[in-house]
Write a structure and sequence with these properties.
single chain, alpha/beta, binds glutamine
């Protein structure tokens, strides 16, 4: 049924880069047989899943939507992909994205842009745009995405589905092609909050293969879905509802707060005073880390190698010039500059200090409140082509998601309305490792 749906919708949506049809059918038949034999059931038994193409999958092309990795066939699977398999989910294919997860519209895919299922003239968001569109179009039950500065939550908001960025360290990054290692986090994109709880249950947990993996107890996430939010204290940052936020988005968020009031929660305006510095801080830190992480793509170890180099340096230069797209090159240059001697203190180190201040903003609010609620993105989805020529405008779409990533705390986007037929997302942000409260509040609202 999943492949039939893909056949029907994919020409208009273009969510997938690679399909896994033969293997998926074999796996599904094996599960079917096990069911008939009365065998064990994994938590995600038989569910068709899509995986973002920066999560490595053994024997299944993993391109990061880059020409550089257009022939990269991994010899191992990411921990998160392995855990999906162990939970008996079936991998339907690999999903389109902005190249190396750099972008917010899917237009940076070096193959083709994915389109928003609600209106195919609009972007699905990014970088996990394929992950969001495939769920919204009913091609898969759920997908995995990655979120460095908003890449799960923003496309979930634009496509009218649920997207959860877990606390940094909760889900293993082993086998996630690194963009900015101190920010990257894998999480689920689903049709509803209960599904998000199940998928998180399957992929969360300590992994010795990831040095930043957190060794924390994993609760039963579905047990949190009680519908009861009485007495929850919600902080609403004034910085997330001010200038630059579409009035229709603001109205949808205010209506959601009324729903919480009616359910017995309380909310008050709060301040995250360093929000204004978040975008600059993020683009310095994320680009710095990216410039270092992407040094491994040299034309020797992975992916495509340029033809006829004059010597080794020329091989690097040609492979990288041909393999990387314009946004990736922009980030590498920005990051290399920020890390270079003489500029390190002024840019990289300064950004690290501001990151600490941003994290403290969240700590201060969480001293008094259980959750922070605001919009996921300042506007609904925009038209394909509308912002691609203007990177700074594109970067501003992440103003409400980036501070959360810098603080490392969990957040979910749930649908909270529409404007001109395009979905709006409500962002619910929690304390570190308190995914249960985030899911409880999201589920009660939904
Ligand atoms: N849009 C942001 C960027 O381009 C976030 C991307 C992400 O979370 N992977 O960096």
């Amino acid at each position: 049924a999943s492949y039939a749906r893909i056949k029907e919708t994919e020409p208009a949506i273009k969510a997938f880069l690679t399909l896994n049809e033969d293997n998926a059918r074999t796996e599904a038949h094996a599960l079917d047989k096990r069911l008939g034999d009365g065998g064990e059931h994994g938590l995600l038994f038989g569910l068709p899943a899509g995986i973002k193409d920066n999560i490595v999958t053994e024997g299944l092309l993993t391109t990061c939507a880059s020409q550089f990795l257009s022939n990269y066939n991994p010899i191992y699977s990411a921990t998160s992909a392995r855990k999906l398999k162990e939970a008996d989910a079936v991998t339907i294919g690999k999903l389109n994205m902005d190249e190396f997860a750099m972008g917010g519209s899917n237009e940076n895919s070096s193959f083709y842009p994915t389109r928003n299922p609600w209106n195919t003239e609009y972007v699905p968001g990014g970088s996990s745009g394929g992950s969001a569109a495939s769920v919204a179009a009913g091609q898969v039950y759920f997908s995995l995405g990655s979120d460095t500065g908003g890449s799960i939550r923003q496309p979930a908001a634009y496509c009218g589905i649920v997207g959860l960025k877990p606390t940094y360290g909760l889900v293993s990054r082993f086998g996630l092609v690194a963009f900015a290692s101190s920010l990257d986090q894998i999480g689920p994109l689903t049709k509803n909050v209960e599904d998000a709880a199940y998928v998180l249950q399957a992929i969360a947990g300590y992994d010795a293969s990831d040095s930043t993996s957190a060794n924390v107890e994993i609760p039963d996430y579905t047990a949190a879905l009680t519908g009861d939010v009485k007495g929850l204290r919600i902080g609403v940052p004034k910085e997330y509802l001010g200038a630059g936020i579409d009035p229709r988005v603001k109205e949808a968020v205010m209506n959601a707060l009324k729903v919480y009031e009616s359910l017995g929660a309380t909310w008050e305006e709060v301040s995250l005073p360093h929000t204004d510095y978040a975008i600059a801080t993020y683009y310095l830190l994320a680009s710095s880390e990216a410039s270092s992480n992407l040094a491994r793509f040299d034309g020797v170890r992975y992916g495509v190698r340029a033809d006829n180099p004059d010597n080794l340096i020329d091989l690097y230069r040609k492979s990288r010039s041909q393999g990387f797209g314009p946004e990736v090159k922009r980030r590498i240059m920005l990051g290399t500059y920020a890390l270079s001697s003489g500029y390190y203190d002024a840019y990289y180190l300064k950004a690290q200090k501001v990151r600490t201040l941003i994290k403290q903003d969240f700590d201060n609010v969480f001293n008094q409140y259980d959750l922070i609620i605001g919009p996921t993105a300042p506007t609904p989805a925009f038209r394909i082509g509308e912002q691609i020529g203007d990177p700074l405008t594109m970067y501003l779409n992440d103003i409400c998601t980036i501070p959360v990533s810098l603080a490392g705390v969990p957040a979910i986007s749930v649908p909270c309305g529409t404007a001109d037929g395009l979905p709006i997302g409500l962002q619910i942000i929690g304390k570190a490792f308190d995914e249960s409260t985030v899911l409880r509040a999201a589920h009660a609202f939904e």
